[in-house]
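FIELD: query
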Amino acid sequence: MLIAGNFLYALAIVVDALIWGYIIILFARVLISWVNADPYNPLVRFLVGITEPVLRPIRRWLPFAGIGIDLSPAVLMLVLYFFQVFLVRTLMQLAFRWQ
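FIELD: result
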């Protein structure tokens, strides 16, 4: 059980880092959208390419399409934070029980 506990603990740390990394990328995308950056810039293309597949379904689901404010990044950040708290804590609690 020690190996399984250590594996779950390591998995929790990796999931936590991946979620934080995606939140930072999403925040950078929001900041770049405010300054109207060059759409052909490789960094802008990377940020749009990695976030748009996740944001597009949220935009279709949200009823705020006609007001001109895109709230999908905020909704995605809340969802990611929820999964971070729920999933990472659950994995860590399981890991500590199995050690």
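FIELD: remark
Residues 17 and 52 are 20 Å apart (CA to CA).
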